[in-house]
């Protein structure tokens, strides 16, 4: 049996690898924007379901209403503040394929801001994977699937936007590859830093990550999906939500 930290790193890398796959598809293939939006809608629904039935529910079972509410609002507040700071530096449309991202000539330092933003988006998800292993029941299968399915359209849409802004394949694929590796490191950190922590602390960590992920969905993924899919975005999101719900019950 492999040690827990190594298992956490493996599953973090698996979920993060979807970013690379999505970036490869987005850069080298022509994917209609409606299809990109549909995939993003479905991934959003899957992730919302995992948040509700896996993360938030687990946080409540461990720490009660107080820890869950405090962590969720805190995670959302931290993400929102960081997103506002990054948006002012050129990273507002880091996951958009339809809206043009700024070039370095237009906004100096925008490439760095986009890289930081993309990295920041993935850290809470990976920490959750590491923390989920501490319960002793193994990693949440639905959680990993949900993160993988949400990471694919993130990488795809982001790569398309970066390509339109004139950024090279080396920059784009290097960025998403680095984030996949960082995802593995964040999962390991979540597993090792909180080993032995009290149930209340674990509950807060899980709910902080859940709040940050939900804020990320509302700020970046869902607007991109709705902008292109329009009337069908809601239906596809519900389909993703139900798919993850069924997986969680079958599991």
List the SSEs and their pairings.
Blueprint: H1 4-28, H2 33-91, H3 110-132, H4 141-164, H5 169-193, H6 199-229, H7 233-250
Task: Please explain how this structure is put together.
With 251 residues, this protein is mostly helical. Helix content is 82%, strand content 0%. It has helices at 4-28, 33-91, 110-132, 141-164, 169-193, 199-229, 233-250. It is globular, with a radius of gyration of 17 Å. The relative contact order is 0.25. The model has no long low-confidence stretch (mean pLDDT 83).
Rg (CA only): 17 Å
What spatial form do the alpha-carbon principal axes imply?
Answer: globular
N-to-C series of helices and strands: HHHHHHH
Distance between the termini: 22 Å
Helix content: over 70%
Number of strands: 0
Main sheet properties: none
Mean pLDDT: 83
Structural class: mainly alpha
Total of helices: 7
Strand proportion: under 5%
- Are there runs of 5+ residues with pLDDT below 50, and where? none
């Amino acid at each position: 049996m492999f040690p827990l930290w190594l298992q956490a790193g493996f599953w973090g890398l698996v979920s993060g690898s979807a970013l690379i796959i999505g970036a490869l598809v987005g850069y080298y293939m022509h994917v209609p924007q409606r299809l990109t939006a549909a995939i993003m809608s479905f991934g959003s629904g899957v992730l919302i379901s995992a948040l509700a039935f896996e993360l938030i529910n687990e946080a409540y079972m461990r720490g009660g209403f107080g820890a869950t509410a405090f962590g969720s609002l805190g995670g959302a507040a931290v993400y929102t503040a960081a997103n506002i700071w990054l948006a002012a530096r050129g990273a507002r449309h880091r996951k958009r394929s339809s809206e043009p991202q700024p070039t370095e000539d237009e906004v100096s330092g925008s490439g760095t801001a986009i890289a930081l933003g993309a990295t920041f988006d993935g850290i809470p998800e990976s920490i959750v994977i590491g923390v989920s292993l501490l319960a002793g029941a193994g990693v949440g299968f639905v959680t990993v699937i949900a993160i993988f399915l949400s990471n694919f359209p993130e990488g795809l849409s982001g790569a398309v936007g970066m390509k339109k802004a004139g950024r090279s394949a080396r920059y784009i694929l290097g960025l998403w590859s680095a984030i996949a590796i960082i995802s593995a490191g964040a999962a390991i950190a979540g597993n090792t830093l909180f080993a032995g922590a009290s149930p209340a602390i674990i509950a807060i960590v899980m709910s902080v990550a859940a709040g940050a992920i939900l804020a990320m969905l509302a700020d970046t993924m869902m607007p991109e999906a709705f902008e292109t899919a329009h009337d069908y975005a809601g239906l596809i999101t519900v389909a993703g939500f139900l798919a993850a719900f069924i997986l969680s019950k079958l599991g």
